[in-house]
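To: structure desk
From: M.T.
Subject: fold request, one chain
Message: Could you run this one when you get a chance? Sequence is below, nothing fancy, just the single chain.
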Amino acid sequence: FAEDKLPPQRRPGELESVVASKPLQTPSAALPTNLRVSPACQADLEIAVSAFRLGEYESALDRVTQGLARCPGDATLQQFRGLVLFAKGEYAEASVSAHRVVSGGSTWTWATVYPIYSDAAIYTKHLRALESFTRKHPDDGPARFLQAYHYRLLGSADAAVRELEMVIRLEYNDVTAVNMLRSMGRSATSPTPISPATTGTY
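Reply: Done. Structure tokens follow.
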């Protein structure tokens, strides 16, 4: 992920982590078709996404949290909440949300995330901030798991695997990371634990 911004389409020899298979388009105002929740929470989701697109992340978080209170356990709301926390730079909490949705088996792809953003460059900025954080805090297991989640979301399997392998070393009892790695066709070998003094917790 060394490029300054995410490339619009796949080209041989480049990183796998591309954001789309065709040139990026301006997101439509409508929610992606798979962003559907129960009628009791649909308004919460729509208002939260609208606030998110305006960069009003605190308002988006408040509204999606209200939605989760009405529809506890809803995977779409949980995943969107994680995206808001990622945008806000609250990586520990965002990682908790990522763990929950990965455990439930319903993770998003870029095709879902892109329409939520008003500009792909904004997502790029958020991703670069996370990458900068993990470079400064290489022993932060939750942040690395979140980074693996986003790399997988972008379709960059190799980059996601590298992060998951480090997560398993740091958080060797993280069953979700192990299962996520296996779901990508990779074996989770017995890790060599890193000193508890440098190990993060979820």
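Reply (cont.): Confidence is low (pLDDT under 50) at residues 1-27, 190-202. Let me know if you need anything else for the meeting.
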